[in-house]
Amino acid sequence: MLSWVGKRPLREVRAFPAQLIERFSASAGAEGAIGPAGGVAWSDWPDRYERGGLLFHGDNKEVLAHLLSAGFRGKVDLVYIDPPFDSGADYVRRVQLRGVSGTARLDGETYTLGEQIQYTDIWANDTYLQFMYERLLLLKELLSPTGSVYLHCDQRKSHLLRSLLDEVLGPDAFVSEIVWQSADAQSGANRYGPIHNVILYYARSEERVWNPVRVPLSRATADAWYTNEEVLDKDIVNKLGVSLKAGSVRRYNMSDLTARKPGGDTSYEWKGRRPAGGRFWAYSRANMEEFEAKDLIAYSSSGRPYLKRYLDEVEGTPPQDLWTDVSMIRGISNSAETDYPTEKPEPLLERIVRVSSNPGDIVLDCFIGSGTTAAVAQKLGRRWIGADINKGAIQTSAKRLAGVIEEQAAASVSAQQKAFEADDDAAPAPPAQLAFSTWRVNDYDLAIQHNEAVNLACEHLGVERTKTDPFFDGSLGKRLVKIVAFNHPATMLDLQDAARELESRPDEARDAVLVALGREMSTEQWLADWNRNRPINKLEIIELRSDPKYGKFFEHRPVSARVQLEGSQVVIHDFISPSILERLGSQEGVLAPQITEWRSMVDSVMIDTAYDGSVFNVALADIPERKADLVEGSYEVSLPEGSSAPVAVKITDMLGEEVLVVLDR
Q: What is the pTM of this model?
């Protein structure tokens, strides 16, 4: 068991509802929302979701909790995650924790929080461990009895993450530690170049899905093993029945024809000799005669027979735990599909998905990034679920998946089905779906109809709806519930309306609760006066944005910036990301992180010096390469002469939200 400062079990987690953002369905060749059957029954799919891929925008802890409550417990067959390697809830590049005032102590520790931050790096490390611990606990609940988990990491955290997986899934669940060469040679003055990633493979049981694949021999292996050559003549070609021309050169190795133990007709003389050392022939006399007739036996200088094994007939070898044959992230074999910075190559995911899932299985990636896992699952006939807190990741994944599905829909469905039924390993299974939907979890657009807002609030709180009541929206336990419109905080007028409604019902003995995003300060005294000495019909306000009992309910609010054009200089004076501020403010701990620099929230700045109102042409881009670096914030630009077109500035925060500021000259 691994211990860290602030470790706490995940005894319960609040499940937030999902808000539908958009649907995508193939425009050509689609058979409804689902693709060709391919053996997918969909009987295990929750009724609340259409049959198709699911893409969730939100904190993956809340998304995983939502999936558990929505009916996916024990139904996910394969989990692949590629979490942040060296940070926890990495919402911003730099969170200023130094100089925190106060001497609040952590339980069981003798140092104050300020001292820990000042003298060690323990806070960042512990935050990361708690972050991963909670998500692994939730993923365990979603895994099917035959499910597998692949966790992608690097040398910095692999030892800690393996300890976490041992604790959550059990040490017996460990299957393999895969080392993948992810980059070409690195130059380093005083260390060995880090050119590999680690993939930790765990499974719920020994009955895990396992579809063996073959890996082509490397050139080095082929050169080392297959050192013999022969030139084919017509007689040999006819004997072997191979589709090679006379004069072709075949490489082969010489395989031992003896065995340690007998097995049937294996004790006999061949060409006047028997195996030495008490061994036996590995094949029967009839088989040996057949090999001889086909010229498949080679003899050493001493007359010992060997079986020829030809290089062009080798199907490959089973994959081992060292992967050097998969294209890299950086280097000459890089083949990225998108410009997403942490994208992994499709061949890497293809091997994992093929080996540890079957067509129709559910594949989950809750750090989906550029969408590689879902794209590969879609191509291989699996169902998929993806999630990411970064809006840019969701947009990139959605665009990529739409392209994959359109290509599949346009292809010949009958040809795909025929290849699949013929058990052609090279042919992918027919698509399990030709549609997907995108959802928000706890990042709600509440500029919607009141009825939809009511549904979201009721689902979140567990309110039982009452459609026949003209005033109250339902009941929560023994209390009546009224949802206050989310476009304003609860006021005394809302309370007075509820009070009058209760007074008009003389037989109503239940208390009532008003649910709102916020409340006016004056409501506290009004509630105290109303509830004083009142045995029935008490009133209460649940403030969704701050009530800890129900978790913090996030209203989606766009980012904003204050930018000015000062001569030929673009100056960003301020930038605010409400989503980042709210999520950081909701983090548990002795003291919430504080942002002292607005640039900490900014991922990139791009400037168009002659914006035409439709197409954004990047004339200047500020995208810091290193994680610790900040954008400049002030830029000298060259304005086109003779043009009165405005200057446009696009600022993107660390969650992928962006704002476009247009500046007149």
A: 0.81
